[in-house]
From TrEMBL:
InterPro entries: AF2212/PG0164-like_sf, DUF1905. It comes from the Bacteria. Transmembrane segments: none annotated. Pfam families: DUF1905 (PF08922), OmdA (PF13376). This is DUF1905 domain-containing protein.
Length: 163
């Protein structure tokens, strides 16, 4: 685990708040292509990845909901602890999607062949609603569209049914 203090910044061109990750921390991991668990102020933990910020530094986005939970605002200094995320997909899989993939052999086979980023997109999209029924509906729609797509040429738009 790596601990350090950082400041909440903002990328103005996309109006996004972020935690700056110093070059020394990035260098210690040796890559930006890593999934991490980020804990802020010993209060809130979430799964994340590093994004290049320039000059060897990186950032982790932090949304308004998380900032509110922490009681912090733009410019505040926070304590950050990062550790490697050893979970299979780099984020928690909703039980509705997990159950569907247990029952749908072809859907599971196709899901497993996707890039990690596409897998996380599906997991994130299914997780994006509170209702278990809506989660199941999203999971079914995405996996059915995945099975209809050309293997190796899957797109987010097609999975969402927009192509």
């Amino acid at each position: 685990m790596i601990k350090f203090k950082t400041t909440i910044g903002q990328l103005d061109y996309i109006n996004m708040k972020y935690l700056e990750i110093p070059k020394e921390v990035v260098d210690e991991y040796g890559t930006m292509k890593i999934r991490l668990v980020c804990t802020v102020n010993n209060v809130l933990s979430f799964q994340c990845g590093l994004m290049a910020l320039g000059k060897g530094k990186a950032y982790i986005s932090i949304n308004a909901k998380r900032m509110k939970e922490l009681g912090v605002k733009l410019g505040d200094q926070v304590q950050v602890a990062l550790e490697k995320d050893n979970s299979k997909y780099g984020m928690d899989v909703p039980e509705e999607l997990e159950e569907l993939l247990k029952q749908d052999y072809e859907g599971k086979r196709r899901f497993d062949k996707l890039t990690p980023g596409m897998q996380r997109y599906i997991i994130y999209y299914v997780s994006g609603v509170k209702s278990p029924n809506l989660k199941l509906e999203r999971a079914i729609r995405l996996i059915e569209n995945l099975k209809k797509s050309i293997e190796g040429k899957e797109t987010f738009r097609f999975l969402l049914g927009k192509d």
